[in-house]
Design goal:
The chain is an alpha+beta fold and 234 residues long. It contains 8 helices and 10 strands.
Amino acid sequence: MSFDWEHLLTDIPFSPAPDKLLRQVRMEPEAGFDAAVEAIAQEAAALARPKALYRLAVPEPLDETGVRIDGVALRSRVLRVNLDKANRVFVYVATCGTELDEWAQGKTDPLEAYWADAVKQLALQAAIQALNQDIATRYRPGPTSAMAPGSLADWPLQQQRPLFQILGDVTRRIGVTLSASYLMIPNKSVSGMRFPREESFESCMLCPRLDCPNRRAPYDPELYERQYGAGAHV
């Protein structure tokens, strides 16, 4: 079963405030770079076009280690268990946009290149926020969690390919391409799947890398065996 419910978000407001950009790069206003940072922010605001693309679909069990979405097989025991009670999923890609990415690549000064990369991250955050808000407003799914290919060994980065297949021509729609090593270009892009779930889930809960700067939840060394191991029922 599948639904042809796709949503393309291209008119996402984004105008990076210089003070927010300074905080993003961990600089104090009195550092003497206010004018330069403001110029970077103004340049970015004039051309930034963050984007997002998502599709509503219904997951179907494939076997104990995979699901099928719109005829495409995805292999992950954790994803399979997490989607066991989900009657719908939102498959997505969000990006800072090729416009900002090309602009940033033109910055040859190391400090300006650093600032430009921070602007791209802020634009990606704006795209993610718009994506989540559109899902919440349009579909009212209630509490949700998300998973992304590459966030766990159980769902490796190679699974980007079938996820993009579910969304169709992602490159034509929002400009995001996959490299030979399955990394997204522009690099400030994210992909994944959001699904209704009463109990909050973060991939960090299953990741033992304790020094990760992006950790969003404590590591639980017993969680995998308890909920996703061979004895867990699906």
